[in-house]
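Quick review question:
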């Protein structure tokens, strides 16, 4: 089955074009030079040479004996790769096998080697290798992807006890189902005999933790924060026997927001970390790994190695903490987290940091009994305690666009964007102050009516806040209400002057967002909406439509009955048709404490649950700093025209990225 990259329609494998939208399933567009005839199985664009292929990280490992994993041994049959034959008749990890660069890991010729496999001799046995591979069939959904997608959509609750799924793959599936973004996303997996192959997200290009640890501009509190993240991950990985993943320093990476993440999982065994294909720094990889069973003393030794490898001096109470860890005075994760919190408070008292001390939702360490299957273990893990840090804005970007749609002759939507960024950057500090005003109006009243009302509302609100918005402080709720009433009054007076009556009276909906650094407030009248998207919470509709159906629901009427009314979608309030006594704008304040995508949308974009159905493909990728918001909003307009072309379509996207306020 081929999944269309544009509309996500499911196509037979033989299709060359999507049956739904006509998008090519054999060629793609280069993101750099926009060449349209790049084969989907090409690593680079033939025109500009940019890498545009779909690259994954392949782990090829010998199957670990059941007694080493304390789980039942699985049947040695084919896995989730379907009828995919494994690598070769001889194991790729055996001394006699050879897989050349450019060869495929599977007989279906889907995963092509981009890196040479390490040479193995009789004296240097390699039981676990990781290499980059090119997915030559990127639009074909794998069985694991289909299983996880079905699980997310609640179509079924798949069991990961299925025969043929490698044990290592089960760990990724279990952790991924819990939304653990520190763990790479699994894409495919299979096994035959004593060989297991797992295809995961490629993080080999992510910044190593060690690189930033040794930077002079990295302050003590940021290092403390990474230690706390590692302690949290230790508790998460302990019940699934993957703590060694934290002890290979080259495996510790940072995402674009400098949050700790793992390049891959390593399963514990009686011996030390498996030999890998790229021992860039043997000491860094192995010096923290003990021969005896793992305890949190090993985590302390990993931190000592990070300090030693980075040639960075240990600071303050960290020296005492590491010493206590080494001699066994700290022997539980709860005690370790408590000590890290104390050091945080000490740093603040010394004036070394500008943020509150580390806190957590709860201090109890959840009981995590061992189990035969990783999903049983993970299901018993409570939400990990979270470090609550003061956040600061690291970037604020936006893009907006409006379109007449496919049926209307004129556009009654109107929007306005005003963003001011003030940046202070010094060698050891960077402060970004963001100030944003975003307004979207969907006019009504026909030609020479709706578009006048929407434009007048936007301009009235802009002028008001230019005069009344005090620097570095969000306007009060009363001030925002006053602005909305003024916009209503401006349109109402125009209706009165022109003696408009009935349906001829012009009006407009309003959704308005104001951002000051990490604080935000939304005000709205009508059915234009604000959506909020974060990686932790997914897509949320922030505003509630002012329409008859919603009014009936608030009165206790069942939703199915409320929206069975013929007037269910009729607005209960709008700007302009009546005086201010007839409107009551909703105003709500909220904080941006994680990377957030905010979307203001007219009903031409939000109708028919369009955004709820397509946010995974059209919104979630825009959270990444590398994603182009202008192209993103253009894609949303195209999506709206494809499904909701009956109305004007307008969208404003705001991407607010934050980071812990760690500047000293």
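Suggested answer, residue by residue:
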């Amino acid at each position: 089955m081929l999944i269309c990259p544009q509309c996500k329609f499911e196509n037979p494998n033989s299709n060359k074009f999507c049956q739904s939208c006509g998008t090519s399933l054999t060629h793609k567009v280069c993101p750099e030079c926009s060449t349209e005839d790049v084969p989907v199985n090409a690593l680079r664009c033939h025109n500009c040479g940019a890498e545009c292929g779909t690259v994954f990280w392949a782990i090829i490992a010998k199957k670990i004996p059941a007694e080493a994993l304390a789980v039942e041994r699985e049947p040695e049959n084919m896995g989730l790769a379907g009828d995919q034959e494994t690598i070769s008749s001889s194991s790729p990890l055996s001394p006699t096998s050879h897989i050349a660069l450019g060869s495929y890991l599977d007989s279906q010729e889907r995963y092509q080697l981009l890196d040479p496999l390490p040479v193995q001799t009789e004296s240097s046995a390699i039981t676990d290798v990781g290499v980059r591979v090119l997915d030559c069939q990127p639009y074909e959904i794998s069985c694991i992807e289909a299983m996880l997608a079905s699980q997310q959509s609640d179509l079924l609750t798949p069991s990961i006890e299925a025969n043929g799924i490698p044990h290592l793959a089960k760990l990724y599936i279990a952790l991924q189902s819990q939304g653990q973004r520190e763990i790479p996303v699994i894409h495919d997996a299979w096994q035959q005999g004593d060989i297991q192959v797992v295809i995961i997200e490629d993080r080999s290009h992510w910044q190593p933790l060690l690189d930033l640890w040794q930077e002079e501009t990295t302050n003590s509190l940021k290092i403390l924060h990474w230690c706390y993240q590692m302690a949290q991950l230790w508790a998460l990985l302990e019940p699934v026997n993957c703590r060694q993943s934290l002890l290979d320093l080259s495996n510790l990476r940072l995402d674009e927001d400098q949050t700790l993440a793992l390049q891959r999982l390593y399963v514990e065994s009686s011996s030390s970390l498996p030999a890998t294909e790229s021992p860039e720094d043997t000491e860094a990889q192995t010096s923290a790994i003990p021969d005896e069973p793992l305890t949190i003393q090993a985590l302390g030794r990993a931190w000592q190695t990070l300090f030693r490898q980075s040639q960075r001096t240990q600071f303050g109470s960290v020296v005492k903490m590491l010493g206590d860890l080494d001699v066994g005075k700290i022997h539980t994760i709860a005690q370790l987290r408590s000590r890290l919190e104390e050091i945080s408070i000490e740093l603040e008292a010394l004036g070394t940091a500008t943020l509150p001390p580390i806190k957590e939702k709860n201090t109890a360490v959840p009981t995590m009994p061992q189990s035969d299957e990783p999903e049983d273990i993970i299901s018993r893990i409570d939400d990990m305690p979270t470090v609550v840090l003061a956040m600061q804005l690291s970037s604020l970007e936006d893009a907006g666009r409006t379109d007449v749609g496919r049926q209307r002759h004129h556009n009654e939507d109107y929007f306005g964007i005003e963003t001011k960024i003030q940046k202070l950057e010094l060698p050891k500090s960077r402060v970004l102050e963001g100030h944003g005003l975003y307004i979207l109006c969907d006019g009504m009243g026909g030609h020479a009516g709706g578009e006048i009302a929407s434009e007048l509302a936007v301009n009235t609100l802009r002028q008001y806040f230019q005069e009344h918005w005090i620097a570095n402080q969000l306007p009060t709720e009363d001030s925002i209400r006053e602005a909305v009433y003024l916009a209503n009054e401006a349109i109402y007076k125009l209706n009165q002057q022109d003696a408009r009556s009935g349906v001829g009276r012009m009006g407009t909906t309003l959704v308005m967002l104001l951002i000051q650094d990490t604080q935000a407030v939304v005000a709205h009248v009508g059915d234009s909406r604000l959506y909020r998207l974060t990686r932790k919470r997914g897509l949320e509709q922030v505003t509630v439509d002012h329409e008859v159906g919603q009014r009936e629901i608030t009165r206790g009427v069942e939703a199915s009955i409320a929206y069975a009314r013929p007037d269910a979608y009729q607005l209960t309030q709008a700007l302009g048709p009546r005086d201010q006594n007839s409107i009551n704008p909703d105003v709500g304040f909220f904080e941006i404490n994680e990377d957030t995508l905010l979307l203001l949308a007219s009903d031409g974009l939000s109708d028919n649950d369009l955004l709820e159905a397509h946010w995974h493909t059209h919104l979630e990728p825009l959270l990444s700093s590398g994603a182009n918001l202008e192209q993103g909003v253009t894609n949303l307009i195209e999506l709206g025209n494809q499904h909701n072309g009956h109305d004007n379509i307008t969208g404003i996207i705001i991407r607010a990225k934050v980071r812990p306020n760690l500047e000293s």
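Why it works: Residues 208-379 form one domain. The chain has a mean pLDDT of 80.
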